[in-house]
């Protein structure tokens, strides 16, 4: 069986598989040839090209891929992988075109730091109460590793924690980031906007890393783009752990966010009751005020 693998850089011939080979053998072969992990691969075949959705143990023949086919490979960013709704190893995303599409927002609106290889930029993720993760990965990992995730470590009984984290309005932090680092085999570096602190998950265990920016109540992604007006499909989001340039630039992005006051810590932010105009500090004072007065409208403001 002879297949052509096309990505944005070149065309590679794959001739080591047959129709009875498993789909996971195909994705592993592609990973060995390109360095792109299976979870970060989007494969399209046919005309017009359509996403090839298959399970690891499906045969290549059952996916519709035939001898002589051209497979179009797109590398998915970590943000795209984390936003997978289904548990299959493929995700629907847009394949890069030969021309850079018109950007959806002005480059003047992008928080960025220039480097020799392009611009390190903030990529804002949708604030949908699940900006950090999909709970299925977390729950599965916790249940399979009870010795590492005890009731004491989780701060509540394990089953209760798994039930809580599966709710659509729940969102995680350090525990979930450490699980993702293990799951995706990449160090995750979380840059805290308020303090400039970098928390590293999976430190010293992997050669590659990704960066996220934590603004107190939300996680956004860091990417390297060739030019500010380029489509996000050209973003690089996986870096070498030895790349200090990206590290310093990510801190620079966090610094700019701090200057623009694009961060919020629920224990420190200043609020004003929208009904009686009383000034309050932090979510706990707001909760207490609501209990005493029945007021439920609060607005954050800067002193």
TrEMBL record:
Keywords per UniProt: Cytoplasm, Hydrolase, Metal-binding, Protease, Thiol protease, Ubl conjugation pathway, Zinc, Zinc-finger
InterPro entries: OTU1_Ubl (IPR048857), Papain-like_cys_pep_sf (IPR038765), Ubiquitin-like_dom (IPR000626), Ubiquitin-like_domsf (IPR029071), Znf-C2H2_OTU1-like_C (IPR057766)
One GO term (biological process): endoplasmic reticulum unfolded protein response
Subcellular location: Cytoplasm
Domain Ubiquitin-like intervals: 1-73
EC number: 3.4.19.12
Pfam families: OTU1_UBXL (PF21403), zf-C2H2_OTU1_C (PF24560)
One MF term in the entry's GO annotations: cysteine-type deubiquitinase activity
Catalytic activity: Thiol-dependent hydrolysis of ester, thioester, amide, peptide and isopeptide bonds formed by the C-terminal Gly of ubiquitin (a 76-residue protein attached to proteins as an intracellular targeting signal)
A Gene Ontology cellular-component term: nucleus
Function: Hydrolase that can remove conjugated ubiquitin from proteins and may therefore play an important regulatory role at the level of protein turnover by preventing degradation.
Protein's name in the database: Ubiquitin thioesterase OTU
Provenance organism: Funneliformis mosseae
């Amino acid at each position: 069986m002879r297949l052509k693998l096309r990505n944005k850089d070149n065309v590679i011939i794959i001739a080591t598989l047959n129709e009875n080979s498993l789909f996971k053998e195909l994705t592993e072969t592609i990973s060995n040839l390109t360095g792109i992990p299976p979870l970060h691969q989007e494969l399209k075949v046919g005309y017009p090209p359509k996403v090839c959705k298959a399970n690891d143990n499906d045969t290549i023949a059952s996916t519709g891929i035939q001898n002589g086919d051209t497979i179009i490979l797109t590398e998915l960013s970590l943000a795209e992988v984390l936003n997978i709704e289904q548990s299959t190893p493929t995700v629907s995303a847009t394949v890069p075109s030969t021309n850079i599409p018109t950007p959806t927002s002005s480059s003047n609106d992008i928080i960025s730091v220039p480097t020799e290889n392009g611009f390190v930029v903030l990529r804002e993720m949708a604030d949908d109460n699940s900006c950090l993760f999909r709970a299925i990965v977390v729950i599965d990992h916790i249940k399979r590793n009870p010795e590492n995730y005890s009731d004491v470590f989780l701060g509540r009984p394990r089953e209760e924690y798994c039930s809580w984290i599966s709710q659509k309005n729940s969102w995680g932090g350090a525990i979930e980031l450490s699980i993702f680092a293990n799951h995706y085999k990449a160090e995750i570096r979380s840059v805290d906007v308020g303090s400039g602190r970098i928390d590293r998950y999976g430190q010293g265990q992997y050669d590659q890393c990704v960066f996220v920016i934590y603004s107190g109540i939300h996680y956004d992604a860091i990417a390297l783009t060739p030019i500010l007006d380029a489509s996000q499909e050209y973003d690089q989001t996986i870096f070498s752990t030895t790349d200090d340039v990206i590290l310093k630039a990510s801190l620079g992005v966090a610094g700019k966010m701090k200057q623009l006051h694009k961060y919020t810590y629920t224990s420190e932010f200043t609020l004003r009751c929208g009904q009686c105009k009383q000034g309050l500090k932090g979510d706990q004072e707001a909760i207490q005020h609501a209990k005493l007065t029945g007021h439920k409208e609060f607005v954050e403001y800067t002193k």
